[in-house]
Design goal:
Pfam families: Ank_2. The chain is mainly alpha-helical and 304 residues long. The chain is built from 18 helices and 6 strands. Among the domains are: 69 residues, Serine Threonine Protein Phosphatase 5, Tetratricopeptide repeat (Alpha Horseshoe); 71 residues, no CATH class.
Length: 304
């Protein structure tokens, strides 16, 4: 029979408990099979039945048995936002492996704060079925967490220059590449010691090159102000959208950042070529929506 029935102070699926079964989550053979007592406990955690959970813990029930995806009852509590039960499990010695990743995935600052206060490691690698999950801080950036959670993880000692195991990007590469992240998160990572000039080991790109692809003026300014050796090369900014040539604030900022004025001229030339699609025709060049001061600044003989 399907449905729910009261059993003490918790709710269980009667058809599951009345069947001689070995319950398995998912289709993977390496996932654990739960006995009836473990299933009762998981269902009680999921339903928020703290009295039953507390009674079982008082009897010496193991709170670290493995559930789906290498989790434990604490992960179930976090998945269902059961803050009170999560605290009870932590007080009873629950392991925090994978729990912080789940709290970040749920964007729950209260759970994140509580787990960190119990010693959860923001640099710990999570474990799934068949593959490892990136360190929690990198994972949090992957799933576009808000600034409050990012700051909390940094405060707890997150490595702001850790490498992502899959893309070999640093946290700055991740946030500069994704439009879901704000300049405030970039600034928080930079203040914590994030390296603005670091090149990833896979493509050799810097965070600035990713920011240029997004044409995010504020992030570009933050990276340059943080010490990126902008006077040495033009290439990282070659992918800026040509429309930014009419951004007076950005152009003036770049003028001040570059010690060599010819570098800015080369950048403008590269962007104009990109806008023209490689065609070096003066009439098309003059039709571009560029301010007069910039038209004079860019040497036409470089282009034509």
């Amino acid at each position: 029979m399907n449905g729910y029935a009261e059993d003490g102070d918790y709710i269980v699926d009667t058809w599951l408990l009345d069947t001689d079964f070995s319950f398995e989550f998912g289709e993977h053979q390496d996932l654990p099979k739960l006995n009836k007592e473990q299933l009762r406990f998981i269902l009680a955690v999921k339903a928020g039945k703290i009295k039953y959970v507390a009674a079982k813990i008082a009897e010496g029930f193991d709170v670290n048995f493995c559930t789906a995806w290498r989790g434990n009852p604490l992960c179930t509590a976090i998945e269902n936002s059961r803050l009170d039960i999560a605290k009870l499990l932590l007080d009873s010695g629950a392991h925090t492996e994978n729990a912080l990743h789940l709290a970040c995935l749920r964007s729950n600052i209260d759970l994140v704060s509580m787990l960190l206060s119990y010693g959860a490691n923001p640099n710990a690698v999570g474990h799934g079925v068949g593959e490892d999950i990136p360190a929690c801080f990198i994972f949090a950036l992957h799933v576009a967490q808000p600034l409050t959670i990012v700051l909390k993880l940094i405060e707890a000692g997150a490595d702001v220059n850790a490498m992502c195991c899959q893309t070999l990007w640093t946290p700055l590469h991740l946030v500069c590449n994704s439009p879901a992240h704000s300049a405030d998160i970039v600034q928080a990572i930079l203040r914590a010691g994030g390296m603005a000039h670091h090149r990833d080991k896979h493509t050799g790109w810097t965070p600035l090159q990713h920011a240029a692809m997004r044409s995010d003026r504020k992030i570009i300014q933050l990276l340059i102000a943080a010490g990126y050796p902008i006077h040495r090369e033009v290439m990282p900014l070659k992918d800026l959208h040509p429309s930014l040539l009419s951004d007076l604030e950005l152009i003036n900022f770049l003028k001040q950042a570059w010690s060599n004025p010819y570098s800015l001229k080369k950048l403008c030339a590269a962007l104009i070529r990109k806008c023209l699609g490689g065609c070096k025709m003066q009439d098309k060049l003059l039709q571009l929506p560029l301010p007069k001061y910039l038209m004079k600044y860019v040497a036409l003989e470089v282009l034509l």
